[in-house]
Specification:
The strands form three sheets. Strands 3-6-1-8-7 form a five-stranded antiparallel beta sheet. A four-stranded antiparallel beta sheet has the order 10-11-9-12, with helices on one face. The chain is built from four helices and twelve strands. By secondary structure, the chain is an alpha+beta fold. The radius of gyration is 16 Å and the shape is globular. The chain folds into two domains: about 100 residues, Alpha-Beta Plaits (2-Layer Sandwich); about 80 residues.
């Protein structure tokens, strides 16, 4: 499938101190509990939280954001998450006001983790082939192998930077993502402003 629906980011204020290091699974469960219609949408995902590692936890900054990447037609519906409390692995988070952010065509994008069971060479070859299918031309820079583990499941893969993207290719990658487990933050691309070439 090479066509993705029109997508947008809905960013909510987030109040809380920390989340467990493997928070992605519990966070999705809580968001889907509040917005059950998300479960049926293959394109819906949660952008990884910007947080600093501290022991087995991740410390949230004062201006933390919970960002959902959704079909644009669902953005208004998602606002009902405002004011809800989320129990993420025993950490209580309160969801604040929502702000819609349209996707913009940045020339360099980064995904914290693209799911893959392959070795690095096979992973890069697979990503290059997928991008070609999507008619997206760019250069790829693979980062280190990573794993995110929750209480009952885990996902593993690589961080990935795409650069020299043309505007339409950049938007296509942000709409469609790469790899699986999008709901857990995998394969979701965001702007990456510093890269040495």
């Amino acid at each position: 499938m090479n066509e993705a629906p029109d997508m947008t980011d809905v960013a909510f204020g987030l109040r809380g101190e920390l989340v467990p290091a493997g928070y992605a699974f519990a966070l999705w469960d809580e968001v889907a509990r509040c917005l059950p219609w998300l479960e049926a949408d293959e394109f819906a995902g949660i952008v990884p939280l910007r947080a600093a590692a501290s022991g087995g936890n991740m410390l949230l900054p004062r201006r933390a954001k919970l960002v959902l990447r959704l079909r644009s037609q669902f953005a208004q519906r998602a606002r009902s998450l405002t004011g809800r409390e989320l129990d993420v692995g025993g950490s209580m988070l309160r969801v604040g006001e929502a702000e819609e952010r349209s996707l913009k065509p940045y020339p360099t994008l980064h995904a914290q983790l693209v799911e893959s069971a392959s070795e690095e060479g096979a992973f890069l070859a697979g990503m290059a082939a997928r991008l070609q299918e999507m008619e997206v031309a760019c250069k790829l820079v693979c980062g280190k192998r990573l794993a995110v583990a929750g209480e009952k499941q885990q996902v593993a893969g690589y961080s990935l930077v795409l650069h020299d993207l043309k505007p339409e290719g950049s938007l296509q990658v942000q709409r469609m993502g790469l790899g699986g487990s999008r709901r857990f933050g995998c394969g979701i691309f965001v702007p990456y402003k510093t890269i040495v070439t």
